[in-house]
Amino acid sequence: MLPPPVELRVPDAAFLHEEHFPGAPCVPGSCLLEAVRRAARQAFGRPVTCMAQARFRHFVPPGSVCRLLWKPPSPAAHAPGTEAPSSCRRVGWQLVAVCGPSDGDAPGRRLAEGEVWLASGSGEALCG
Phi, psi at residue 25, to the nearest 5°? Predict the structure, then answer.
């Protein structure tokens, strides 16, 4: 069974928005991935050893409220050499818009998606 969705709120004012991108600020993809990693660690109680298949579909502006949904892993084939070891648990994720800052971003709009690989239950056998 998958944990419940997680709500992510992007602050209106943050130093990282000033330069990414001037005139049209958005949250850097690396920051979104770090938020997903932390949420997965908390939700599943296991270290994240790898993030795979990440796709960013739309920019996430400051002031956005997003929902992080957990999904069964995609059955899509991975590139050779990128399969999760059997000691890992694969979990899909999807970031969707709840509301935008002022432009009323369409609720339910898919912003990003991907997959996390979690360490074994004991946490000993790290993969990736």
Answer: -65, 145
Measured between its terminal Cα atoms, the distance across the chain in Å is 23
> Is the per-residue pLDDT at 107 higher than 50?
yes
Give the Cα separation of 60 and 96 in Å (integer).
10
Residue type, 117: W
Q: How much is the average pLDDT of 13-38?
A: 83
Measured in whole angstroms, the distance separating CA 124 from the mean position of its chain's CA atoms is 24
Place of tokens 């001037």: 22
Beta bridge partners of 113: 55, 94
Closest CA to 26 of 54, 55, 57, 62: 62
User: Could you report the per-residue pLDDT of 64-84, keeping only the tens digit for each?
Assistant: 899 999 998 877 655 555 665
pTM higher than the cut 0.85: no
Query: In 1-128, which ranges are E strands?
Result: 6-9, 48-56, 65-71, 89-99, 110-118
Q: Count helices and strands (H / E) in the chain.
A: 1, 5
